[in-house]
Amino acid sequence: MSAPKMTMAQAINAALRDAIAEDDSVVVFGEDVAQLGGVFRVTDGLHQEFGEGRVFDTPLAESGIVGMAVGMAMNGMRPVVEMQFDAFAYPAFEQIVSHVAKLGNRTRGKVRLPIVIRIPYAGGIGGVEHHCDSSEAYYAHTPGLTVVAPATNADAYGLLRAAIASPDPVVFLEPKKHYFAKEEVDVSVPVPPIGRAVARRQGKDATLIAYGPSVPVALAAAEQAATEGRDLGVIDLRSIVPFDDDTVCAEVRKTGRAVVVAEAPGFASVASEIAARVGERCFHHLEAPVRRVTGFDVPYPPPKLEHHFLPGVDRILDAVDTLQWEDAA
Amino acid sequence: MTVNLGNIRDNCKAMWRCGLSAGQLKAAITPARLLDETGRLVRGASAPDPEALVEGYRKLVFARRLNEQCGALVRQGRLAVYPSSRGQEACQVACASVLADGDWLFPTYRDTAAIAARGVDPVEVLTLLRGDWHCGYDPNEHKVAPQATPLATQLLHAVGVAHAARLKGEDTVVMALCGDGATSEGDFHEACNFAAVFRAPVVFFVQNNKYAISVPLARQSVAPSLAAKAIGYGMPGVRVDGNDLPALEKVLGEAVARARAGEGPTLVEADTYRIESHTNADDASRYRADDEVTEWLPRDPLLRVRTYLTAVGALDDDREQQITAAAEEMAAAVRAGVGAETVADPEELFTHLYSTPTPQLVEQRAALRAELELEEA
């Protein structure tokens, strides 16, 4: 019998529900998360089921939400907070960078902060400005944070459960364009732990490295390439921090060619870090420089222009074409 | 600070209709006081318990001695820097003494003396300024958060601890400290608002020492008082003479009791003065006149209590000498503790960041270890 189909929003909702039910210290709060169930309905029904003590709305202030989560975690709770959109998390930046990320280190591990900061992120939904940022580099650059970006609905469930169970703070980036896409999710099947990348597709000719919303795009590119006689593998990082050098490098060493795919502007980005790491670690196995296919170094565009900005199948395949195949013969 | 009660009344007509009383407004603007600047009980005030006040005086002497000792340790190069609370010792002592064991204190970088008054070993507190580590004491053991260096951010943590306590059915109260400059920060606003909305058991205690490094109060706010800001959040604001220990203990004690009874937060503003520069690295002569400091010296918080206790016969030379001797002992222990050579472990850089270090940190730690072994070889 196949597992039930659910959307990513439903998978995350199920993870929250199960975590709240299992552990009295889990609390969920943020803007519009209670009565409304969140603007994406990710927390739908949780307030009604568990009450004000477990799932509650806050005043509209992101620094306040994250700062309060720090204090609640200091006092034994496991807060899971929602930032309504990627760019609306910026008012909380000081709290995240100066306290969420550092308090454990500051106190020599005496105070741990099991906080999950859920952020609907990235684009592809035709959203207006401030609703489509890929902000992962800010968090990945901050020592002390764990940064997770699921690409599948099963991972959204499993990784969120793992994030909530983690003794350390996790920034949980939810690719919002996946919220309403259905996939089979069997919540009883455990997913690999945070920090483990997986090869979503094995390939012999080149390796596409992606995370979050770019994983399905990379898979589509690999499908297309297969019809053109190129066998591309696709790695889903699943977490940006910790970064799984071992899995990534093992795959790249097999193919000798790699393209990193990410929506965020490429300059000083996570994609750049990955390209550098692969270059340093796999140099003698590489047949070509590691390429990056990313967003342009511009603010996220207005809806009519976003398709020019987002890395798509054609742009990925164009990059693959430049990987010095002429030398292979 | 000049206060025009009439204007405030006009501005707050809507509040009046909501039931804000003249007494509540007055409390937010006119500093409460029990001992006047000459050490006499103000008219109509009930006399503080002399024995309790002697104990308070002992703590004031300790706090002053600690400030002096830390200044000396900076001059000797033993501490990197010290933001002194000289002149604010009554605030430092009172905010700690009104708390029960299970309550929390959220201090700033200027509140070393308050943390010591809470019972934390000053040497542990000074770990930060000695440069060994960012926090030298166990926050959970003492219910004292790490000293906040960014401004006002800790106020939100205080609200979180308080709200969690409330959800768990505990009667914990949280004392959250900040200065006048921090009231301009967004997190001050968010913390006050969250606390009021959630009726969190928090006491916001603003030590208005008139300066944020060089910027005077007038450039921070033109509100009638900092305590008056509470009105906008729907919580009581109380202004108190910040150099009057018994008045501070009374006002803060009432705010703590109110929070513990489930009646929500209070904003208390202490009217005080930073006698020294921001830190030893600062030169206050660039932005304030010596005359201004001279004006505040006779309002000294220690002098006031000593004068009162001597007048009522609760403090004689013998007792004074005992207190001074004990403070000297404490100072000697601080000198010895801070002066002791410590060896910082370079590998500790990687120990605490994550419960389980990332593969990258394991790699970097090994690389550093290899460097160190090469140096030793």
Can you tell me about this structure?
The complex is a heterodimer of chains A (329) and B (377). Chain A has 329 residues and is α/β, with parallel strands linked by helices. Chain A folds into two domains: 5-184, Thiamin diphosphate (ThDP)-binding fold, Pyr/PP domains (Rossmann fold, 3-Layer(aba) Sandwich); 198-327, Rossmann fold, CATH 3.40.50.920. Chain A is built from twelve helices and 14 strands. In chain A, the strands form three sheets. Chain A has a seven-stranded mixed beta sheet, sandwiched between helices. In chain A, strands 9-11-10-13-14 form a five-stranded mixed beta sheet, sandwiched between helices. The model of chain A has no long low-confidence stretch (mean pLDDT 97). By secondary structure, chain B is an alpha/beta fold. Chain B contains 18 helices and seven strands. Chain B has helices spanning 5-11, 13-17, 22-29, 50-75, 89-97, 112-117, 122-125, 127-130, 139-142, 153-167, 186-198, 217-220, 229-233, 245-260, 290-296, 301-311, 317-339, 359-376; strands at 104-106, 174-179, 202-208, 211-212, 215-216, 237-241, 266-271. In chain B, β2 (174-179), α11 and β3 form a beta-alpha-beta unit. Chain B is globular and about 75 Å long. The N and C termini of chain B lie far apart (65 Å). Chain A binds chain B through residues 27, 53, 58-59, 61, 63-64, 66-77, 79, 91, 94-95, 98-99, 102-112, 143-144, 146, 166-168, 195, 241-246, and chain B through 133-135, 138-140, 145-146, 150, 153, 155-165, 167-168, 172, 186-187, 190-191, 193-194, 197, 348, 351-355, 358-360.
